[in-house]
């Protein structure tokens, strides 16, 4: 099996082959990747408009367009003197078709470039195709030895496409950690902390009425600790919403237990030492000893926010 490049070690044939490969990978592959993006958008538009059967009409167009792109790439590489032009063109074309699908469906968080999905899809396609074919070029061996051909390119492309979903998950997790860090550190009031051995802090969310910490019990049951923001604490009061239809509240040891349409309590509200209102909210329909848990509620200690951030980001 010959290498991807011509056997001539130097001179114009080899330079032309390298130029053709780079042009196809850096220009042709990104342009080809726009085709599946367009097909995806067209199919989605047909589905939303109720003309879902029109997707079947796209099948021959898709097949014809892919074959045309392969033929153009093959002709370009063959005229430039590249060995294995058909295999190389097929690999680049397949990469240009597969990368948008993987990037949009399995790895939507991978956005190395500004400009949205289309720009990043074209960029990733060009990078993956170039790295793949570059591996085959670098794997070129002396003429008297076995040549791997496009096998290194195939291996590199497969590894990179396989790695994209994992990279997307890492990016998503990092973004979630940074968001949690910002929500905790920027909250301008005392945060209510549940200091109970049976409950461990798992998540944090900023909601319209304050900051919500989610704790998990021994069996994974969630319990939300909501620290009301200043506006709701001072204006709405601890009995907020108790006059709504289907809602009734009862005072208990300086706290308020809220019921919605009977059944288990849906919320327990209490005051922290500085007057901030905090509430315990179990998962709807589950039984939880809110009174016992409320005894473990306390204001955050000075410098404790770093520990809270560590709890939700590790």
Structure description:
The chain has 314 residues and is of the alpha+beta class. Helices cover 52% and strands 16% of the residues. The strands form two sheets. It has a seven-stranded antiparallel β-sheet with strand order 2-3-4-8-7-6-5. It has a two-stranded antiparallel ribbon with strand order 1-9.
Strand content: 15-25%
Helical content (DSSP H or I, runs of 4+): 40-55%
Q: How would you sum up the major sheet?
A: 7 strands, antiparallel
Q: Helices and strands: which structural class?
A: alpha+beta
Shape: elongated
Count the E strands: 9
> What is the topology, as strand order, of the major beta sheet?
2-3-4-8-7-6-5
Count of DSSP helices?
Answer: 8
Q: Cα-atom Rg, whole angstroms?
A: 30 Å
State mean pLDDT (0 to 100 scale).
Answer: 88
Low-confidence runs (pLDDT<50, min 5 residues)?
Answer: none
The SSE order reads: HHHHHEEEEHEEEEHEH
Report the end-to-end length measured between terminal Cα atoms. 50 Å
Describe this structure in a few short sentences:
This protein has 314 residues and is an alpha+beta fold. It is 52% helix and 16% strand.
What's the SSE blueprint?
Layout: H1 12-48, H2 55-79, H3 85-106, H4 117-138, H5 151-186, E1 192-194, E2 200-207, E3 210-216, E4 222-228, H6 230-236, E5 247-252, E6 255-260, E7 267-271, E8 277-282, H7 290-294, E9 297-299, H8 305-313
Antiparallel strand pairs: 1-9, 2-3, 3-4, 4-8, 5-6, 6-7, 7-8
């Amino acid at each position: 099996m010959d290498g991807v490049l011509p056997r001539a070690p130097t001179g114009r044939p080899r330079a032309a082959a390298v130029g053709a490969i780079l042009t196809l990978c850096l220009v042709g592959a990104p342009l080809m990747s726009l085709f599946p993006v367009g097909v995806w958008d067209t199919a989605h538009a047909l589905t939303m408009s109720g003309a879902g059967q029109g997707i079947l009409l796209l099948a021959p167009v898709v097949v014809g367009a892919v074959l045309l792109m392969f033929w153009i790439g093959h002709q370009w590489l063959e005229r430039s003197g590249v060995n294995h032009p058909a295999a190389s063109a097929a690999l680049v074309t397949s990469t240009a078709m597969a990368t948008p699908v993987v990037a949009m469906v399995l790895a939507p968080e991978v956005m190395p470039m500004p400009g949205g999905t289309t720009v990043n899809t074209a960029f990733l396609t060009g990078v993956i195709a170039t790295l793949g074919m570059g591996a085959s070029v670098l794997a070129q061996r002396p003429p008297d030895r076995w040549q791997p051909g496009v096998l290194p390119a195939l291996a590199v492309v497969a590894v990179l496409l396989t790695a994209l979903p994992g990279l997307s998950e890492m990016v998503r997790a990092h973004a979630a950690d940074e968001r949690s860090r910002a929500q905790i550190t920027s909250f301008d009031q005392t945060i209510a902390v549940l200091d109970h051995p049976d409950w461990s802090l798992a998540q944090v969310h900023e909601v319209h009425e304050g900051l919500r910490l989610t704790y998990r019990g021994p069996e994974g049951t969630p319990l939300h600790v909501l620290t009301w923001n200043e506006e709701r604490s001072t204006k709405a009061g601890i009995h907020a919403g108790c006059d709504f239809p289907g809602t009734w509240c009862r005072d208990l040891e300086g706290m308020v237990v809220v019921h919605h349409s009977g059944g288990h309590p849906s919320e327990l509200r209490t005051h922290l030492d500085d007057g901030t209102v905090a509430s315990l909210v179990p998962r709807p329909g589950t039984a939880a000893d809110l009174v016992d848990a409320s005894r473990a509620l306390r204001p955050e200690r000075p410098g404790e926010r770093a520990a809270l951030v560590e709890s939700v980001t590790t």
